[in-house]
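Record 1 of the preview.
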Amino acid sequence: VQLQASGGGLVQAGGSLRLSCAASGRTFSNYFIGWFRQAPGKERELVGGITWSGNSRFYADSAKGRFTISRDNAKNAVTLQMNRMEPEDTAVYYCAARRLGYEKYAYWGQGTLVTVSS
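->
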């Protein structure tokens, strides 16, 4: 079972970046895929997420209006589109999966670094 996050990089403030979380090794049809981030010296926080079916989404206040989480059926992936990015968005971003009805995220991808320059 593998979740692989990709797409990180350096972007200027106000710019956009798209992250992808590719899933393999099992079906995630009954799972919620969350995007987390951890900035230097800060705790990891949930940015948002989506059910694998795509029927339900969640966004943290920091992401509302700027970030969009979607399913990419063709690539068996979940994407995080980040627009109007701010230096405060600088962090390592992770994707993770938890089974619906459970709190624990059982599967984690490796992080991808996003740096927003001012």
